[in-house]
Structure prediction request, 480 residues.
Amino acid sequence: MAALTLDALTSLAKRRGFVFPGSEIYDGLQATYDYGPLGVELKRNVQARWWGEMVHKRADVEGVDAAILMHPTVWKASGHVDAFNDPLIDDKASKMRYRADQLVEGYIDKLRSKGKDAEADRVEKDFVAALNADDMPKALHDLIMGEQIKGPDSGAFDWTEVRQFNLMFSTHVGPVADASSKVYLRPETAQGIFVNFHTVREATRQAVPFGIAQIGKAFRNEIVARQFIFRMREFEQMEMQYFVKPGEQMEAFEAWREARWNWHLGNGIRAEHLRWHEHEKLAHYADAAQDIQYKFPFGWNEIEGIHSRTDYDLSRHQEYSGKNLQYFDPHTNEKYIPYVVETSVGLDRTVLMLLCEAYDEDTLGGESRSVLRFHPRLAPIKAAVFPLVKKDGMPEIGHKIEQALRDEGLTVFYDEKGSIGKRYRRMDEAGTPVCVTVDSETLENGTVTVRDRDTLRQERIAQDRVGEYVRDAIKMWTRA
Ligand code: ATP
Prediction:
C-alpha cells in the first residue's frame, strides 16, 4: 500500500463529505473545519462509544454538560490566565510563526531520522532542561541559537526572541466591552467538571471514588495550526475527572491508563500504532502524566492525556471561590480535598486517527480502490442497498429493505444508479461494511446478495435477515 499522506486524506475527506474547510465559500477561516454528512456520523459514533464506556457502563461515573462561558475567576483559579501560554518564535526571513518547543522537537526527530541518536539525546537533554528553566522562553531561544536550528520552511537562520502567547480566546458579556465584562471561551472542558464537583456529588449521592465526564467544545488560539483536524482553534474534548482519596491516586491512574488504552483498541486501532509517552516536564502540581500517542502520517503525536493532578484544581477553586470544597468521608469520618486523575482525549484527533487507521488501498479486478476499513461499530453508514437494475420491481424491494434497516436504527444508503462495481467501490471509500444487492433471484426466492467490505465475500441470505447480518458484522468484526 502507498504511504498515506495528509494531503490525500484531506482531499478524500472533503470529496466524500467527512470534513470540509470551514467557511469555504469565503476562502476559509484558518484551522476551522466543518463536518459533513459522513464525518458527523463518524464523530457521533465515537462520542456515543466514549459516553457508553465511560458513563453508561460504569456505576461510578456521572455525566455533565457545562456552559462554555464561565465566570472569569475560574480561569484565574485554574492558572490559565497566567500560564496557559505557548512559546512562539518568528522566522524573520519567511515571516512564518512557530511554536519554539515544537521547533526543537522537530529538530530532534530529524536528527534521529538521520541516525544521529547520540546528538539527538544530547539536544533532548538540553531541551528538557530548557522546558524546566525559570526563564523558559530565554532558555529555548538559547538552545535554538546554540544548535543553529534553521527555519523549516525558509531554511534561514534569522529568528526573533521567544515570546509567551496566551492561547485563550476572550469575548465580552453584555453590551459594554470593558475589562469588567471580559470572559473567555473555555480552553478545556475540565473546569466545568471541577466547579460542579459538589453539585454532582450531592445530586447523585456518589461517594469518593467517583468520576464526572463531559464532552464539549473547547477553544484555543493555537499559534500553528497546519495539520488538518489534528490542531484546530475550535475542537471537541471528551474528558473525565476521577476523584479519589489522597494516596489512592496511583492505583486509579494505572486503572485508567489501561481502560483508555483498551478503548482505543476497541475502536479498531492497531496496538503497534499506539504508544505511551511520558511527559518531559510535569506540571508543578502533577505527580504523574502520560500521553497516548498515535503514529500519524506526520509522526507520533498525542491523542490523549492521562494525568494525576493531585488536589490542585479543587484547592484552587476553594481558595478563589471561598467555598468549602472538602469531602467528608463517611467511612473514616475524615475531611479532605479529593485528588484527581483525569483522562482527556480530543474527539477531532480521534476522528483523524480513525481515518488514518482505516485508510487502505488495494487492487480489485485490475483497478485500484481506496477503502476505509472502519470498525463497523463506528462506520458512518452501516449498510448500502442496491437494486441491480432499475426495473422489475427491484427498486421497490430495495426501498423496503432500506426502510426496515432504518427502522432498526441502522444508517443506510440507497443507490440505484451506475454499474454495481462502481457502487460497491463508492461504499468502500465511505467505509460501509455491508452492501446488499437485490437481483433477479430475489424476485424468485426472496434472497439478496450481501457483500463484505473487507473480505469481499458475497453470500445469499433471506431478505428479512439483512438487519441481523449487519448487526453480526458489527459484533464479530476483527481486522483482516
Ligand atoms: P498539544 O501538546 O498537542 O497541544 P495538549 O497537551 O495541549 O496538546 P491537552 O491540553 O492535554 O492537550 O488536551 C487534551 C486533548 O485535547 C489532547 O490530547 C488532544 O487530543 C486534544 N486537543 C488539544 N488541543 C487541540 C487542538 N488544538 N485541536 C484538536 N484537538 C486538541
Residues 188, 220, 222, 231-232, 235, 237, 302-305, 344-346, 348-349 surround adenosine-5'-triphosphate (CB under 6 Å). The longest strand covers residues 234-244. The radius of gyration is 26 Å. The chain has a mean pLDDT of 94.
